[in-house]
Prior knowledge:
It is found in: Spore coat. The structure is a single chain. By secondary structure, the protein is mainly α. The protein contains 4 helices and no strands.
Amino acid sequence: MEFDDILEHTGNKKDELIVHEMLVSSKSAVRAYSVALTETISPEVRDVLRRQLTQAINQHSRIADYMVEIGAYHPYDLKKQVKQDKKKVKKTRKIIAKSRQPENKLKKRRPDDSEEASNATVSKQEPEAVVASDDKAQGTSDA
């Protein structure tokens, strides 16, 4: 499922979803800069990475503060955050279930396909039955 498709299912929660993605990305950037900083030997590169890490930490803080402001993130109230996360999981499962409905319909058609295959087998037998009955009919007419 593409991100655009996910946004269509979010309704008026699009901003919240986008800001959550931004928060996750900013956390990833902080981790990446931290690892790179600890792996480098060059003092010049270390200085550049330190500045970039500081910028990434500041960006993360701004995103987190905005999320707290709009009520999308509750870092100081664990019960409230867990409750909100459970709602999001439930909503996500519904979205995923809706996105898979066409696949489910195709799966339901497969047993019908096997019925058609069995009907095809029956129709293959029918011409033989017709030929046999024609032979009988010819045999009775010859006698």
